[in-house]
Amino acid sequence: MIAYSQVSAFTETPGHGNQAGVVLDASGLDADTMQAIASTLGVPETVFVTATHGDTAWVRYFTPTQEIDFCGHATVALGLVLAQRGHWRGGTLTLETMVGRIDLDLELDSGAPRRVWMRQKDLELRPVDRALRARIAGALGIDERLLHRGLPLVSASTGLWSTFVPVVDTFVVDAVEPDHAAITALSHDLDVTSLYVYAPTSPKTFYARDFAPAVGIPEDPVTGSSGGALIAMLAATGAIPRRGDLAVGYLQQGHALGTPGEVCVEVTLRGDRPHVIRVGGCAIVEREGKM
To answer: pTM score, two decimals?
Structure first.
């Protein structure tokens, strides 16, 4: 019997945020078994701890259909479960993932675990050919004229590649009618995991939806890895305010699915270049079981 936890990440409200499975002891499991467990749980991603040594854990991530390199909300979920079980009492916890080393920090509230902060990989950017704008808009079911011309339409990664598509306001985000076959084809052509649609609601807050049918997720409720990449990219381009060398941004996501959540991102810059990218989120355990 394999014990698991089902966790809502990027929220403190049951039923909100993004669901993740957490398996703390996967040391004897092969990839096929992990995939079967992830498929059975049916949540967007499940994280498996395959080995531990001191303050380091080796982890793998699976969607219901395939293994992926990294997942932000499942990482937040894992950190919370480790802290609540007494396996992590603070200090830096290092995860070894397929994208390399990810360091976690724990924020406490009156001694209880409240928020997990993960340091993401360095920001990488790839331009998107302007000739693809109409195709991208069409895949999202919107008119090309509703794309925001003052914000970047670009592919970016801090561990997982997405193409970030700015639109003029939140009403357009909610009005998106995704063509999943077209988005899958675009994702393959752009070599990304998802199309991430975003609109500003304030100088440092953005409202978003994330479509990843290419990896078996028609719409991801709340996406930590993409949130980190977006805020880092906007900080680097001067699109969000900064105080000294620090820029802070917030992503609100999941409302269209009835599961709202929030991602907090802190970006420390050197000049115009992101130096440290930290993504923070709360989480709550919804249920636990064995299979």
So the answer is: 0.90
